[in-house]
Amino acid sequence: MEEALRSGLRHGRWAAGEKIPSVRTMAEELGVHRLTVLKGYRLLEEEGLLEASYRSGYYVRAEVPAGEAAGSGVRWSYGAGTACGAESRLSDIHRRAVRYRMSEALLDPTLLPNRFLARHAQEVIASQPLLLSTYSTVMGDGELREAMAGYMQDRRLELSAEELMVTTGAQQGMDLAFRALLQPGDKALIERPTYSPAIDMLRQLGVRMLPVEIRPDGYDLDRVEKLMAAERPKLFYLNPTYHNPTGYTVPVRQRKALLELAERYRCILIEDEAYSDLYFHEPPPAPLFAYDTEGWVVYLRSYSKYIAPGLRIAFLAARPPLLAAIRPLKALADGGTPLLGQKLFQSFFFSHRMQEHLAKLRVAVSMRKEAMEQALSASGWSWESPAGGLNLWVRLPEGMQASRLLERSLELSAAFVPGPICDPLDAMQDRIRLSYSLLDERRLAEGLARVLEAAEGMG
Amino acid sequence: MEEALRSGLRHGRWAAGEKIPSVRTMAEELGVHRLTVLKGYRLLEEEGLLEASYRSGYYVRAEVPAGEAAGSGVRWSYGAGTACGAESRLSDIHRRAVRYRMSEALLDPTLLPNRFLARHAQEVIASQPLLLSTYSTVMGDGELREAMAGYMQDRRLELSAEELMVTTGAQQGMDLAFRALLQPGDKALIERPTYSPAIDMLRQLGVRMLPVEIRPDGYDLDRVEKLMAAERPKLFYLNPTYHNPTGYTVPVRQRKALLELAERYRCILIEDEAYSDLYFHEPPPAPLFAYDTEGWVVYLRSYSKYIAPGLRIAFLAARPPLLAAIRPLKALADGGTPLLGQKLFQSFFFSHRMQEHLAKLRVAVSMRKEAMEQALSASGWSWESPAGGLNLWVRLPEGMQASRLLERSLELSAAFVPGPICDPLDAMQDRIRLSYSLLDERRLAEGLARVLEAAEGMG
């Protein structure tokens, strides 16, 4: 079968770009089973002779388009749902294999208590052999939620276990909250710059984004109020503590004022907090949720990132009516986060080693931050030195384009996030986000030397 | 604070059902912090004196409405999104604490290889200590997907690892596929009866359901074709192998014919397969996906249910263009199923003990099925004896109402699923689903005696 086809291709029976007969037609023509033809077509596809485009059939391959990624080249679009858009603009960068990865705001696995966690995990499994055969409830394990509510209460948060939902990563909490509270055509406030998957999610939901600049001292609250009054946004997605990508922290008085605005204009605040324990000197202010007496905040709290990111255990806290609006989507999405990860998280999060680990981690991360600042000190580039978190938000010299700098850096095997990816308006070409959390001091210095080399002669 | 309020309530300062001042107003009135007031209100809420309704405030409680569940009594609706509906109609039944639980199509944990799995889990964690600090990719672990593709290929499925996505339970796969492929107002074919969360999901998406009866010998394909031609449904959600709730299996010739209809009318088939390994005599026919040469099937394959349900590891298989439409939603939903569960699944699914376990499980489940049939033999009720799966779909005698029978059975501490919950048209009061997988033979006999006792004098 393949031979007949291969020969047909070689002798020009079909031209480059031309559609060859469908699997069904070819099977009938040759009198063979359709699966035989499918296998043959696939073999020739692997050999690069054909290009697959299931719905519209197979095509004779002309040439490999420049920059074609695996799975692209699909001509037929299902087009039914709203999903066929960009996945995550960050992931394109993360997929590049580079030596100096300053594009990912992730902790270096060597800083995590892996052996300790593995030992804990073994104890948990040994002592609860039925764990693997048990489903979690939709809201998450009751014991874990009780323990976490207590932990949060000790940290000035007034809440009960009933106000906590366990999610598979904070990302899931964000996805559920957005989908529960927004409809296509709705408006939402979003920080500028912001955590880029939030932009992707809101775009995909067909929501109109109203950007609010975040600055070292917070927001322009007059502008926030004007937008809330004039545009009536359904929600405001914010990341007020060691903000990603800038590292800025919204001051306490603004937090309280935001709550009042939220109440006045009936605008829900989606507060994303991931790194508040990774402060370098003083702990940050309490989250907005601490002031939420009227039920206007959805608080997304990620912890597993600095313990065991692979566990994907995070919490969504909200007052009961708001939580009741989100819960059905969690039930439909996965019926509850897998129990094993919840129990493992619980076992080590509440162990005494946890606070020791955090204390060490703060020192290690702050040393890396200083190493990055040191390596950039002669560059003439500028930034606000963050008081916590994983990122430096750097302003490039006049005329230097972040995306062009990224291209040149990638050639030298160093990656970072260019400003436009974090900008709901797709601008901010004068900014880049450099994460100092994944590489050690020596590799940070080497990687930044590459970026600076790439910048030479630009701008 | 609480005392002042308690006294005010006692002396009738506010009438039953009346709104008391908001947290903000009361705090200003008393000159105390808002959080103090919130805590006070909550205390009185716990004491049953107040009823919370955050947005509109707190109300003096009149009396506890009959049948009020935790978290209900909310008067304010966020109303923004599409989520504020029923969660799962099944879960209401599952929440009831009963002694004889024949409502859940779950395997008895004592039939699962728990100790063996726990040992495997410990080995996996010991040998891969970095597992807990590593994120999965969006599509799932490459090694697991390669292994599963090989396993499926050995079982007559032509597919590659690139056509497989790991999902957090088959439920997540269904949610992602529905959301990727459907928009509000679209039409979808659905079996009647069907797996009830599918009904909940489609309702929540605002999709118009077109029911297709499933019978012991499959569907009326003429009707399916007429519906496809006239209504142009986007997809058909089906569960053709040991169908839930009926246990019916769609024959091979219908499977092939369905593929042809799907191609002709451009209707995607969402094929849900959960229990095909739990056959009592002969293995069932190959899934529809085995015949999918043109890319019209999304195949949802659950395995973890009969190994370690708590792991929540399932697979979604589809040809590349269809998968490409679903993938972005998985990226947004959770960024990838937690890696630990994937590696644990892989470790024991591909062990030699797995096939031994399955062989024993088939015997155990078929004995329970026979025990259930035995216990019902004198009832005069009728059913098709299933060739696999976990459920008996029983027809009640003329005039007996399933929901009424459930009420009376619950009083005797026995639960099952009444027909209407499985029916997209909310009828089928003459049917009930009895699951024989969770209770052992003795308890099945006892539980069914209760159900028959409840039925006495009815109908």
Structure description:
Chains A, B: This is Transcriptional regulator, GntR family domain. Chains A, B: It is an enzyme of class 2 (transferase). Two copies of one chain form a homodimer. In chain A, helix 5 (114-127) crosses helix 12 (339-349) and helix 14 packs across helix 15. Chain A has helices at 2-10, 23-30, 34-46, 89-95, 114-127, 142-153, 169-181, 196-204, 221-231, 252-265, 320-333, 339-349, 352-376, 402-411, 441-455; strands at 50-53, 57-60, 100-101, 164-168, 187-192, 208-213, 235-238, 268-273, 297-302, 313-317, 391-395, 414-415, 417-418, 431-435. A seven-stranded mixed beta sheet of chain A has the order 4-10-9-8-7-5-6, with helices on both faces. Chain A has a three-stranded antiparallel beta sheet with strand order 11-14-13, with helices on one face. The termini of chain A are far apart. In chain A, 40% of the residues lie in helices and 14% in strands. With 459 residues, chain A is α/β, with parallel strands linked by helices. The first copy, chain A, is globular and about 75 Å long. The first copy, chain A, has three domains: 2-60, Arc Repressor Mutant, subunit A (Orthogonal Bundle); 89-110 and 354-455, Aspartate Aminotransferase, domain 1; 129-351, 3-Layer(aba) Sandwich (Aspartate Aminotransferase, domain 2). In chain A, strand 7, helix 10 (252-265) and strand 8 form a beta-alpha-beta unit.
